[in-house]
Amino acid sequence: MTEQKSTNITWHKPLVTQADRETRNRHKGIVLWFTGLPSSGKSTLAHEVERRLFEIGCNSYVLDGDNVRHGLNKNLGFSPDDRKENIRRLGEVAKLFADACVIAITAFISPYREDRDQARALNSQGRFIEVYCKCSVGECEKRDPKGLWQKARKGELKEFTGISAPYEEPPTPEIVVETDRCNLEECAQQIMSYLEKKGLIP
To answer: Which of 39, 54, 169, 172 could join 143 in a cystine, given CB atoms 3.0 to 4.6 angstroms apart?
Structure first.
């Protein structure tokens, strides 16, 4: 648990509620939390889902792991403690987006179950959808668009998830997309169908 250092602060209740925004926007404010090994297709799939949501009039935004590390989390590295703080901050940001009736789409490795569970706990029941991009290590290494797996195998990258740092698979994610078995179209449609079935999008 992160220590609360600020004192003399008060939570201000909004005049415009999440329910008000959802009535106007005709969709729910939720967090779609993509997780998986490096090169498992998280960012590619997250952006495709965002495109589809945009086309049907939903407010959505992708919080991409690399992009966030250019700004909000540029002071964090890849040690276990820094990874934990990275996910803590992003979980809080995603929750704020959902409160604003935006479909927050996160694309981070988020390798530790405990950290993902803490992000889930920030949201009410049914508002946090964990999407596990399941892909074999072999296929991830074969893709390797940034050349990171190759560098990690050579020992040039420390704390690399899947080689020198662990990845803890989610035991009960809402959605499992097998990105090494299904193409982008099929994976994106699987997610959209889930959201429609649950009444989260029109």
So the answer is: 39
Q: How far apart are CA 24 and CA 11, in angstroms?
A: 25
State yes or no: is 110 an active-site residue.
yes
Rounded-to-integer distance, Cα 197 and Cα 102, Å: 19
Contacts of 150 (CB under 8 A, 6+ apart): 141, 144
Q: Is 84 helix (H, G, I), strand (E, B) or coil?
A: helix
Tokens standing for residue 143: 């893709």
**Residue from 40, 43, 60, 110 carrying the catalytic annotation:** 110
97 close to 33: Cβ distance less than 8 angstroms: no
Cβ-contact 129, 175 below 8 angstroms: yes
Q: Which two tokens stand for residue 116?
A: 């993902």
CA 120 to chain centre: 11
Report yes or no on whether pTM surpasses 0.85.
yes
Nearest to 185 by CA among 60, 42, 43, 49: 49
Run of H or E residues at 115: helix 113-121
- Please determine, for residue 80, whether its predicted confidence score (pLDDT) is greater than 90: no
